[in-house]
Structure formats: C-alpha cells, structure tokens
C-alpha cells in the first residue's frame, strides 16, 4: 500500500542513484547473510512468495488504488533478507508493468524491503506479547505506518521545486545573488507547504490501507498458524 | 495488474517490434525514460506520449487497453500533482504526462517481448540467486493466478465477495490467500525437489542466451536515438 508511486522524472537523479546504491548494498548484505542457505530451496521459496505478493497486488479491494502488499507476511515467512530480495523482484516486475517508475526501483525496494525486514522483527517481538493474530495485525499496521513515513520522508528530502528549474531555464544567467536568496527561502517555504499537503492527502488514504493490510495479514497468519505453524519461523525450516 | 494479458500480447502477436531483440527494445524504452527525466516541457512530453500511442497502434496492439493499465500510476501521479502548490500552472500536467509516458514506454517493451528474452538480459548483470528467483516468480505467478481466479470465482458464486461487505470480504480474502499460500509453499517444495533432481547449481534463466541482432533492431535503435536527439533539441 505504500509504494513510492512517484513517476519517473520527478525526483532528482542524484537521489535516484543514491537509492540504487543503498538498495545494491542491502541486496549484497542480504546475499551474504543467505550464503549458507541452499539455493535449491531459496530460489523456489523467494519466487513463490514474490508471486504471492504480486497476486496480492492483483486482488481488487473495492477502492481505486487499494491493493495488498503482503510484504510483512513475506518477511514473516521468508525472513528479513530473503524478504528484501523478494521485495526487489516484485518492484522490478511492477516497474516493467508500468505500475511504478523504473528510476525509483531503488527507493521503492528500500521502502517495501524495509516492510519485509521490520515485519519479521516486529512479529518476532510481538508474538511473545500478544496472541498470534493480534501480533500479526499490530506488526503489519506499525510497519506500514513506518514505511509510509519513510515514503513521505523520501518525498520530502528528494522533492525539488518545479518552479525553480523552470525559472532558471527562463532567466538563465540573469539571477542576482539577492534574488537567488529570496528564491531559496521561498522555495523552502513552498516545499514545506506542498509536503504538508502531500502528507495530508496520503495519511488518511494510507491509514485505511494499514488497517486493511493488517486485517488480511492477521487472517492469513491465523490460518497458517492452524494449518502449518512451521511456516511462521521466518525461513528457518 | 494484467500480467497475463501483457504476456499474451508479447507471445501471440507479430510485428516488426516483436521481431527485434530485447536489448534494442530495452535501449528504446531507456531512451524514453531518460527523455522523461530530462525534459520538463509539457509539449515535448505530450508529443512523446502521442508518439508511443501511434507506435502501439502501428504495431496492432490494443491501445486503449494498454493505456488503461497506466491508470493506476496516473491516479497516484494526480495525488502527487495536487500536493504541488508551488510551480507553474502546467506542472501538474507535466507530472501526469511523465507518469503515463514512462508507464507506456515499459509496457511497449513488455507487450512486444517474451519475458524469457528480457530475463536473459537481466541475468547478465543480476546475481544468480536473484535472476533465477525472478524467473521463478514469473512462472509461479501464472500457476497461482489460475488457482486464485478459481478460488475467487467460487467465493463470488457463494456470495462471499460483495462490494458492500468490506469486513466479510477481508475475512474471506484472508482465507483464500491463506489456502493459496499453503499451496504455494507446497509448490515451492516440489520445485525445490525438481531442482535437486536436475542437479541445479544456479542458472535456470537463459543465462547468456540472447537473441542475435537482426535488421528489425534498427527500428528501436533509430527511434531511441531520435528520442535522445529530440530531447536534446526540444526537451
């Protein structure tokens, strides 16, 4: 529910490159952590869970734009590192489907991948405190809230004022220092206003998503706990 | 998402674009995305969008259906555009144009290229584990999709999914996805045994098998180069 649905060409390329670099580092670390696991077991498991995530995103929930991510569930079942790789694969396929920007694959993978990593950790902590269904709901709800904040943070950090570079384009080489200072302060103000507006639009929409995802994750985890509780061990089977 | 439909368009149709290699078409899509990143001109972006629509029409693809697939990303682009109080009045239009055009450029690639060929390119630079998992994801998606469609149809027939009963929908959907997940894990165990029997050591995807260049590659390569020149002069 909390993809970075920002189109290509909006975020400054520097941030996109930083996103890809960090994503590459996390993937490298994940592969390092998984080095002792059998590829014969990992490949089908990651493939299947990524396919389940893609399927979850295909199920209509009655509202425009609402779909399940199942990234928390993926983290719970695969563990944090295989879960992150799964999030990257899903993002790659989504980008190829025109479902998210190609240039934001790095940033998007960090957001959804963080849901898998923290989903695993939160669930591990909460299952000792609450009943299994409640712990799955709380973990999914909190993780999605965190990842939405991460998304808003990324939008805030990377946001560039469109007026700035169009203005520069029109008045090339004519900008005085004083004028520049004025532009910078007004730019910061405008970015704050637009980020506040973005947050006001996103949070209420996302809140419904957190609840829906939490309920579905809880229902699925409850079901798995009855039928195959061994699957809830975060990939250690 | 219409992965099934996209795959159908890529494998069942034939055009000069379908016959071109994956690398040349990936180059073409990449140039479109570079142009989208570089350009902030609504006129240039609009022209790029019309060009892609014209290309899809020329290839005999169902333009409206493919455009429909970009709606999802367009909705979020509109939310992002609304949040932009700063900037010139045409900026929201630029955001939406960028979103739709980028989505259409990758859909042009995916609806004209077999996924084997695309994954063969990816397997050149992705680690084995990821390249193979990518292949496995795509393959598993269609198997599980059929199962999910059957389950959802069964639930709908029994009145388990109704637009007015949100809570009941979620409960039933959770059950369906739970069953699907258990079956998926069983499927993964079976796949794992099959891989073991076949002596798998990494590399299921067609690593290194890339379709050779042909005269059809000239079209995407020339269109891509023209796009780059276009953004240089008019973008």
> How many helical elements of chain A?
8
Determine and state the CATH class of chain A.
Answer: Mainly Alpha
Q: Give the beta-strand count of chain B.
A: 0
Q: Judging from the principal axes of the Cα atoms, what is the shape of chain A?
A: globular
Note the main sheet of chain A.
Answer: none
- In oligomeric terms, what are we looking at? heterodimer
**Overall radius of gyration of chain A:** 20 Å
Number of helices of chain B: 10
The number of E-state strands of chain A comes to 0
Tell me roughly what share of residues is in helical segments of chain A: over 70%
Name the helix and strand elements of chain A from N-terminus to C-terminus, one letter apiece. HHHHHHHH
pLDDT < 50 runs, ≥5 residues of chain A:
161-181
Instruction: Return the CATH architecture of chain A.
Output: Orthogonal Bundle
Largest sheet properties of chain B: none
Largest interface: A-B, 84 and 89 residues
Radius of gyration of chain B: 21 Å
What fraction of the residues of chain A are assigned to beta strands by DSSP? under 5%
- Strand fraction of chain B: under 5%
Which blocks of ≥5 consecutive residues of chain B have pLDDT under 50?
A: none
Q: What fraction, in percent, of the residue positions of chain B are helical? A: over 70%
Morphology call of chain B: globular
